[in-house]
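To make this tangible, we now present a fold written out as tokens:
***
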Amino acid sequence: MEIEILGAGEREAFLSLLDDPSPAVRRALLARFTALGPASAPFLQEVSRGSNRVLARHATWFLDELKFSDPVADFRGFIRSLNYELESGSLLLARTVSPRLDAGDCCTQLDTIAARCRELIVEPSSAREKCRVLNRVLFHEWGFHGNVENYTDPRNSFLDQVLERRTGIPLSLSIVYLLVAERLNLDLEPVGLPGHFIVGCFVDELPFFIDPFDRGVFRDAEEIFDLLRANNIVPKPSDLAPTPVREVLCRSCRNLVNHYTTAGEPERARLFARFVEEFEATHEKHAT
């Protein structure tokens, strides 16, 4: 494989420097990758799909700068890797339609929101108290809200667009909520209800749920069941179970199939339909 051309020592050196904040180091790495040419692409692609979120982000930046990256192929590689991490997957998904997406800027925005939350959290605080702070920062200070007026706008599903426009649908706003919570070491889970998406906290004796589409309103299990019944859905206890990251991202692709179809963009709809098929085929292959 071409990756072996780099040599073990040089690969280790690259791994130790990829996240170095020094502009001089970044320029030197970019020059070295440029000199190596396509031989450096497999190494950077491998790191971009790896489990280290920080290194993956920086490797993606270099791939973009070097024009070695195929965003659609990268997302397919992520699907097949089975290494499902929410932030990397959300950024890779967004890059399939915005190849010049600045992943570092997205992560910096999430870091900034989390930093503001830390300023306001007084320890010791319960998970519910921390979520109240997160609600204040996200929905009041930053103004994130559900896009009721243009719900089917495909931009509502892409992490970079949601951060820029501060509006989205239940699933994408839940992703933002979860990514900020992760930075706060707040243990929350995605919960994919039938027809809606929320965030769950299961660390206390009684779980509680947060609806980011409704500016972070708290609900208990019975209130969630009442909402489902109001929509003619017979609730089941399993509806409140945490949703795997794989299914979160696959559901986002399903949403995009519908929203691009509504927008009259059949090619984009077919692209995301293929991603859904890839998720399902990969899961079936490894589940048996």
Summary: The longest strand covers residues 196-201.
